[in-house]
Design brief:
CATH topology of the largest domain: Rossmann fold
Distance between the termini: 50 Å
Number of helices: 9
Number of strands: 15
Largest sheet: 7 strands, parallel
Strand content: 15-25%
Strand order of the largest sheet: 6-5-4-9-12-14-15
CATH class of the largest domain: Alpha Beta
CATH architecture of the largest domain: 3-Layer(aba) Sandwich
């Protein structure tokens, strides 16, 4: 291994471990401890590490950069999971359907992925969903207006309920925040729960949307038992006991790679 390659490898190791001893690096890279110490000297001069007795520790500035990168990677992974779920949902929407898209990241992703060529009617209480659909000429949008929750971008209150009482939809896509065997489905507030229950009365099909991290978790307000929805869309990583429950109870589970 050439000197430049070795230095890059040491950088990778220290970025991952944050602290490493000279002897460990010597064993991992198959070179003498003297060579490792010279390499660490160069990395310290770069400001990448701080040498300690018998080893080296990652410089705190680089540690902060690493934390930012890890957070970005985590956010990107979550966005990918949501995007995959939303693409499955979009495939269920047929020409001339009327659909409800509730508040939440998956509903917004569905709105983003709806093709401009598809003629549908969308009813929503989420201003971000409406914004995503703004320039799609063939998509007619009805916003159930009410009291805005600025932190979430959703409308709540009796005016939203009244609007939903007067409409019929073919499919209602519901973004749930918790799925638990004992507590069932849950969302973040009574207002959201009441809105969802109202639209479900006037929907031919209600479809639960939840990424796998929502399983075995409970949000604030109970929405209903696990048999509330007859169709669920999630990721393939959801716990096996939920897959079995859905299968045994004739609930269709669509995941990012499989259908049960």
């Amino acid at each position: 291994m050439f000197g430049v390659q070795r230095l890059n490898k040491i950088r990778e190791i220290i970025l991952e471990l944050e602290f490493v001893s000279v002897s460990t690096l010597s064993e991992m890279l198959g070179v003498s401890e003297v060579t490792i110490r010279r390499d660490l000297e160069k990395l310290e001069n770069e400001g990448f590490i701080n040498k300690t007795y018998g080893g080296a520790v990652l410089n705190k500035d680089y540690k902060s950069e690493k934390d930012v990168i890890l957070k970005q990677e985590s956010n990107n992974e979550a966005e990918d999971e949501i995007n995959l779920i939303s693409r499955i949902a979009v495939q269920m929407i047929q020409e001339n359907n009327a659909i409800f898209l509730g508040g939440g990241p998956i509903g917004r992703s569905i709105a983003k992925n709806i093709a401009d060529t598809k003629r549908i009617l969308v009813i929503t209480n989420d201003v971000f969903v409406a914004t995503e659909l703004f320039d799609k000429a063939n998509v007619k949008v009805t916003v159930a207006g009410g009291d805005l929750v600025p932190s979430k971008g959703i409308m709540i209150g009796p005016r939203v309920i009244k609007t939903l009482q007067e409409v019929h939809v073919n499919k209602a896509f519901i973004d749930v925040q918790g799925v638990d065997f004992k507590f069932g489905y849950s969302v973040e507030s009574y207002d959201e729960s009441n809105i969802i229950k109202e639209i479900m009365k006037n929907a031919d099909e209600a479809i639960a949307l939840a990424d796998y991290k929502k399983f075995n978790s409970i949000s604030y307000t109970k929405l209903g038992e696990l048999d509330l929805f007859k169709i669920v869309i999630s990721n393939k990583e959801i716990p096996e006991n939920y897959k079995k429950y859905y299968y045994d109870n004739f609930i269709k589970l669509y995941t990012t790679y499989e259908v049960y």
